[in-house]
Amino acid sequence: MLRSNGKEDENSQLHQLNRLLSVSEIAAGIAHEVKNPLTSVKGFLQLLHEKYADEYCEIAESELDNAISIITNFLQVARPNMDDEPYQEVNIATELESILDLFLDRQYLVPVIKEFQDTHITLYARRNQLKRALFNLLKNAFESIPDRGSIRIQHYAQGSQLVVVIQDTGVGIDEDKLPLLGTPFITTKDDGTGMGLPQVYSAVYQHGGSIDVESKKNVGTTFYIYLPIHVQEEAHLNTIMDVVCHPDQSIQQFIEVNKEKFRECLVSEQTELTYTIEEVKEIANIDLINNAFNLIYLSLNNRPHEVVTFAKREGKTWAQHSLKLNYKLEWVQTLRKVFWDFFYNYCRIQKEHNFEDFFKIERTVNYNLDTFLNHFNISYNQFKDEVLQTQRELVADLSVPIIPLTRTVSILPLIGTIDTCRAQTVQEKVLHQIELLQIETIIIDFSGIPYLDTPVVTHLIRLFDGIELMGCKTVLTGIRAEVANALVEMGVSIRHNVIKKGTLQQALESIGFNNELLAPQNT
């Protein structure tokens, strides 16, 4: 990628920043005038809904949530300087790996090609801002590919800059829309809000970086992100907060007094919006915020059994609603980070804690959070495994469709490719059904089988022997010329105990069926 000259880059960036600043003037005027009244209305609606269960209240709440969410996103983009997130060392390569884990369900259709170099480089940056920006770009890349395609991600140093390239083989962007990218409410998607790319541009520009875009319709789009590499000598690993702390407060009381601040920190840390907190509540009736407080209180009071019970219940619910496991794991890690930020501020203000107190709380909280993650993971996967096993059994039954024709005659039409695993399933199911239904004659129709290999033929020969051992007669029909030729080439002979017929009609006639009425003939 050949970049334009520095002056042009600077002018383009300045122009984009001016557009964002213009939007910020509008946003400042609507922040308190619109958002706060809507939040108040939502609160009264919730009280009304508790007293009078009514579906119209639910609809109104949902629409208010959408409006508040749009305004919040709008303000986050338009007034980036209001973000009080501290700067810290950030490894972009690691953050990209973490974000990609949120798209595992798409990567079987859209593989991601990673070309990472200079992965040791770190930036002094606002981690959540950049992570949210990278998430938005990758989300757009996946959504731009309707069926199959690929995404290529590059990460390398170029002089004093770190370069991240995200290239997709998607639908592309119209040439006339390229200059407008990054402008709020300008979107290339039918159902888009136009807030994703403005956040990307805003975050990159706030870090002194720049963006280039190349796109061609029905070919794909490539974003080039350039971020300056520089090290801040006095990087603060801990976050200093404006919190209330009374003398002789316990850490639990401290969190309770500053509960709203704790809530804000949890929400602000959620940069990988696989789901929003509201979506999880709507999908599975799970209140992530209240559950987070519950988990912290159980951990601080060292109640491991209650933590295990809570984790198992949560894991099953999460799996039942097919919510992504990696989002929950990220959420608990976010909770852990926010708790330790609060604990740092608690100790900073109290100044009366010794190392023994600190390590006691550290061991108790981390042990219980790890216990929660472990049992949540086990419960989640156990439920998924049970569902998978049920589905496998159902598929196995469907793959061996034994159809009774009369009390003693059944037919087994085999369709599609048969591998050794399916051949084993056929063997087990057929022998079991012969015993269960007391089948005396089974017609096995091979007309839907395109090919047989040697291991599968071996299984089928054993099946014919098993059928004979159970006193049942086998009628084999519908063998294609390709299959017959393959059997001849293998030197396989199906012995005389199996009746061979060319078609299903001939097979039915051979055992006394009238093929028009499909009923036994009178003899």
TrEMBL record:
It catalyses: ATP + protein L-histidine = ADP + protein N-phospho-L-histidine. Pfam families: HATPase_c (PF02518), HisKA (PF00512), STAS (PF01740). Keywords: ATP-binding, Kinase, Nucleotide-binding, Phosphoprotein, Transferase, Two-component regulatory system. Residues 409-511 form the STAS domain. Its EC number is 2.7.13.3. InterPro entries: HATPase_C_sf, HATPase_dom, His_kinase_dom, HisK_dim/P_dom, HisK_dim/P_sf, Sig_transdc_His_kin-like_C, STAS_dom, STAS_dom_sf. It is an enzyme of class 2 (transferase). CDD domains: HisKA, STAS_RsbR_RsbS_like. It comes from the Bacteria. Residues 29-231 form the Histidine kinase domain. Signal peptide: none annotated. This is histidine kinase. It comes from Alicyclobacillus fastidiosus.
